[in-house]
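Write out the 3D structure for:
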Amino acid sequence: MKILLVEDDLAQLHPLQQVLMKANHRVDAVADGLTAQTLMGDRPYDLLVLDWMLPQVSGLELCQGYRRLGKTAPVLLLTAKDTTVDKVMGLDAGADDYLVKPVNLSEFLARVRALGRRSPLWLGDRLTLDDLVLDLNTLILDCPQGSVQLSGREFQLMEYLLRHPQQVLTRDQIEQALWAWDMAPESKAVAMLVHRLRQRLQTVGADAWLQTIYGMGYRLAKPAQEPNV
């Protein structure tokens, strides 16, 4: 998933970011509520992990503002507040779950997996589009002509395309989905990644699925069948 992680304590932010990235999630990690507020309005996320006590804008205020925008991605609140009143306040603000600090990393990942299953984009451990099947655990793409192992970046692009089938995705959309907010890719990074993925697909006869829509972007769609002569 694409996750926004907001925690002002860097000693907690970095371990949480690392454990999420090791689980193949793409993470925007920030340490203040004002930056998070800007990102929430500009970028799409599948899950938000918000510390309650943040400088400038609190996690509770972020959650409330996010819901006012009509955004529906799950929200996990992290906090030292552990009274029933605090929990009720967080849930009433629009949070989906609540984890009390200090955070156990194994439990944290379990909560993230559970919330991921509520996301509108969640389709289980395998993403399928007609004859294409991507295993989210092994990073292997199956199709009638065979199977191919994808690299981390190739997998991220293929996953993103499969979660948005038939849609024309612009370079900016792909950059926002695959790169962290503070790591601007090189100008040709998306084109080069698409080229690499298309080469992988070619090995199993599926390169025609990844279509370039000139002047607009890229689309994953079942290629039109040629009429029988």
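The first helix runs from residue 10 to 22.
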